[in-house]
Amino acid sequence: MGLSASKRVKTSLVNSSDFDTACDSAFTHCLSLSQHAFDGVLPYQLFTASDHIHYSLLSHRRHSLILKWVPDPPSRAQVDSALKKVTHEGESSDVIGSTLFKEWAVVLYVDAVVGNAGKAVLSRVPIGIAGIAGIGSLTRSRRELIGTAVGAYAVGVATWIYLSLSG
């Protein structure tokens, strides 16, 4: 299918002017909260920044991936994990500049979208398989036919979710 799911989502976010605007707005908001005492955002402000980005993208229905796959803001654990991914060993993360902030936001929301899409696959496929198996047993269909139907259903669901990740 070409690109991996995370690369599709990352490309969609990086190329989105709405996502850029939301990130810039959150960065500016965090600077104003600290009364511009620092040249960037402090690590403890990232959770607030994440909520601000999420609210900005949902309030104006700006980004379809966020609307569909991230109904709630990322958790504090996801925020911290994204910060660890973008800061390199030996690099200080005391004050986060605008470039690193944008990189952090992309990593955070790529992980959130892909994680929620993966959960959707894991929840939809077993339900469908149970339904197909139930109908197959009621109609006394051959096992090979049921197996083929289950496989086709699973591939269909996975493909549908994968294709929806392009924004």
UniProtKB/TrEMBL annotation:
Membrane-spanning ranges: 145-163
Keywords annotated in UniProt: Membrane, Transmembrane, Transmembrane helix
Taxonomy, superkingdom: Eukaryota
Protein name: Uncharacterized protein
Organism: Dipteronia sinensis
Classification lineage: Eukaryota, Viridiplantae, Streptophyta, Embryophyta, Tracheophyta
